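Changelog-adjacent note: as of this version, every example in the card shows the full chain rather than a window. The one below runs 146 residues end to end.
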Amino acid sequence: MGARTAAREAALMLLYAADTDPETAAGKLLPDMLPHHFWTGMLPEASLDPELESRTYAEEIARGVTAGRAQIDEKITAASQNWRIGRMSRVDRAILRMCVWELQHDVPRAVAIDEAIELAKRYGSSESSRFINGIVEQIATSLGSV
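Full-length structure tokens:
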């Protein structure tokens, strides 16, 4: 698994946890989001790469999504007809938020969307990959991503 792919997987887990735990969602745990045991003890079975690039990018994604969550959620809401963001599964929400953040930060459209779809296939429901693809394609087009 590549460093960026591992980072996205870790960021998904962090964003899911933040969506589950109001204290984390409020940003109180952000300075220490990825303690050493996250990589070495808690998640070795998830095949996450503990190298610095993975850790740095996972933290960047998680912090960026948390800081820009309101704006990111507006884009998701606008693109998801008939789906309130609160009705989406936590996994789907986390993947969507991460993908939108990456699209806004010069990650190539094909890379951001493909990575989001792969995470949805791995962690989401049987419908997640198509649902996420439809939403992020609309958002990428509205952002002018290439």
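Structural remarks: The mean pLDDT is 83.
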